[in-house]
Write a structure and sequence with these properties.
Elements lengths: L3 E4 L8 H16 L7 H17 L5 H16 L5 H13 L8 H11 L1 E6 L3 H10 L8 E4 H4 L6 H11 L7 E5 L2 H11 L2 E5 L14 E3 L10
Parallel strand pairs: 1-2, 1-4, 2-3, 4-5, 5-6
Helix pairs in contact: 1-4, 2-3, 3-4
Amino acid sequence: MIRTILIDIDNTLLDFHKCADACIRQGFRELDLPYTDRTFPTFITINDDLWRDIEQGRLTREGLRQVRWNRIFRELGLSAEGTSFEDRFGELLFESHEPVEGAPEALRYLAGKYTVYAASNASYAQQHHRLELAGMLPFIREIFASREIGATKPTAAFFAACLERIGNPPKDEVLLLGDSLTADMEGGIAFGLHTGWYNHAGAPHDIALPVDFIVDHLSQIPQYL
C-alpha cells in the first residue's frame, strides 16, 4: 500500500518550460538581445544535455553556471557574457512559479490521501520560494533538494537520503511521481520505489521502463492513486 509520495517539481508541479521561456525573454529585453524562434529550442537542447551530465556526475552545478549560457549564446551567434546572464537568469527563475496545468488540484488530492514530499535537483531556497508563490507549499511536508542532500537524482544516495529523512519507510510504500525518464523513473525503479511517469511532453507510451503507470495529464492521477 502506498503511503508516501515523492514528487518532482520542475515540469511536474511547476511548468519549467513556461517559466524559463518567460525569464529568457525578460533577460534578453534587458540586454537588448534578439529573441527568435531558435532561442528557446536552443536553450532546451543545451540545458537538457547539461542536466543529463549533472545527473551522471559529469558536471557540477558550478560547471553548469560557467558553461550553459556561454554555450547557448555561441550557438545563437550572440555576443553576450554567459556567466553574468546565468546569474540574472537565476534571479528571474527564482521568482517564476507558473504551475503545470492541473498541478494544484492534483497536489491537493494527493495530500488528502498520502504524505507528500518534493524531490528536486534544483536548490532548496529556489524551489521552496517558487512553491510558496504558487500556493503549493502547504500540501508538501518537506522539500528534498540535491544540493542540500549532497547527491543528485537519479543516484541511490539521493533516494536513500530522502527515505532516511522520512524515517526509512518500506520502499514498497513509497511512490515517485515525476516527468523525467532518467532522473525520476530510472532512478526510482533502480532504488526499488514504485513510479508514476507524468508524460509532460506527450511522448509515446511504449517505453522500456517498468513504471507503475503513465499519465499524460495530472487530472488522471486519481485513476491510479
